[in-house]
């Protein structure tokens, strides 16, 4: 597999950025999108705004009704609550020797994808980027995070991982890492994300705004430690370097860092509360880890869902 056919499910923030960078570098990329997004892409192209270079691309798109078999790699960028529908949509497209690279938040989706496609056809993957899709359909990068990390669940450095890395190596605005410990890395990202999402959603504020309160930093760092204990109980203890990095991140008084989950709440949208916060709370309970702040955050988000379902927002 030297020139794989790549299907990217979604051309929003994550899919639009990484898929767009691959297409910009000459890779064979098709975007599987909904009708509304297809109209925007047909009319305006795939536009990326980034400090690492803007792009205005002609994007090849298909709808779910157009799916045909033969894609060597499928990059999955859906929200966790859309995963079942996504699996049904992409299954007919995957070539017999093809593989799926999920870039979803968390780790709960891996078991679901393994069951659907087989463990040997599912890579582990993680994206570290802050990006948003504007009302005008532009993929806008919000800071200098731009990394994608992937690898075999087995830890093998396979040929297909090497091919995919080589494609990303040709792109601009992407830091690519092919690794032998992807599950460890995904768990570490989950510790980071669950901490940040729980705190920013619970407090409805960015990191700096929380840290500047009298006890915000103490609560933030306490939750980070709790998340580390939960991961360790699952066999994925975060490294000392990881914990030190995020202790600094979550103590930065001038930080503007927020999370996509808070942005979802602020726009009155659905969230991945169950997939991220609820998943970690379930693991905490199973391991006997005291997680009161996590429980408060999860309850807060579930109450938000009740209000959203009842239409009780102005």
UniProtKB/TrEMBL annotation:
Its EC number is 1.1.1.169. One of its GO terms (cellular component) is cytoplasm. It catalyses: (R)-pantoate + NADP(+) = 2-dehydropantoate + NADPH + H(+). Gene3D superfamilies: N-(1-d-carboxylethyl)-l-norvaline Dehydrogenase, domain 2, NAD(P)-binding Rossmann-like Domain. InterPro entries: 6-PGluconate_DH-like_C_sf (IPR008927), 6PGD_dom2 (IPR013328), ApbA (IPR003710), KPA_reductase (IPR013752), KPR-Related (IPR051402), KPR_N (IPR013332), NAD(P)-bd_dom_sf (IPR036291). Keywords: NADP, Oxidoreductase, Pantothenate biosynthesis. This is 2-dehydropantoate 2-reductase. It comes from Mesorhizobium hawassense.
């Amino acid at each position: 597999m030297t020139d794989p056919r790549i299907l990217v499910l979604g051309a929003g923030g994550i899919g639009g950025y990484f898929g767009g960078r691959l297409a910009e570098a000459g890779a064979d990329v098709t975007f599987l999108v909904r009708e509304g997004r297809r109209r925007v892409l047909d009319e305006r192209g795939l536009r990326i705004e980034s400090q690492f270079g803007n792009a205005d691309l002609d994007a090849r798109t298909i709808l779910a009704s157009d799916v045909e078999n033969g894609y060597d790699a499928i990059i999955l960028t859906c929200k966790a609550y859309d995963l079942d529908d996504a699996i049904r949509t992409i299954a007919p497209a995957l070539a017999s020797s093809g593989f799926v690279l999920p870039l979803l938040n968390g780790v709960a989706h891996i078991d679901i994808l393994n069951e659907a496609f087989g463990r040997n056809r599912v890579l582990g993957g993680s994206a570290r980027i802050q990006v948003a899709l504007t009302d005008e359909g532009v993929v806008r990068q919000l800071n200098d995070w731009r990394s994608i990390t992937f690898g075999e669940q087995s830890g093998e450095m396979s040929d297909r991982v090497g091919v995919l890395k080589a494609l990303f190596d040709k792109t601009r605005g992407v830091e690519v890492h092919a690794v032998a410990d992807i599950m460890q890395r995904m768990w570490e990202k989950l510790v980071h994300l669950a901490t940040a999402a729980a705190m920013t959603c619970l407090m409805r504020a960015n990191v700096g705004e929380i840290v500047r309160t009298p006890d915000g930093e103490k609560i933030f760092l306490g939750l980070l430690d709790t998340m580390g204990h939960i991961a360790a109980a699952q066999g994925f203890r975060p490294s000392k370097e990881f914990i030190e990095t995020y202790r600094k991140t979550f103590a930065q008084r001038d930080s503007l860092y927020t999370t996509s989950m808070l942005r979802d709440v602020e726009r009155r949208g659905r969230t991945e509360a169950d997939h991220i916060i609820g998943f970690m709370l379930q693991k905490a309970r199973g391991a006997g880890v005291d997680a009161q702040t996590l429980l408060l955050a999860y309850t807060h988000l579930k109450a938000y869902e009740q209000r959203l379902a009842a239409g009780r927002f102005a």
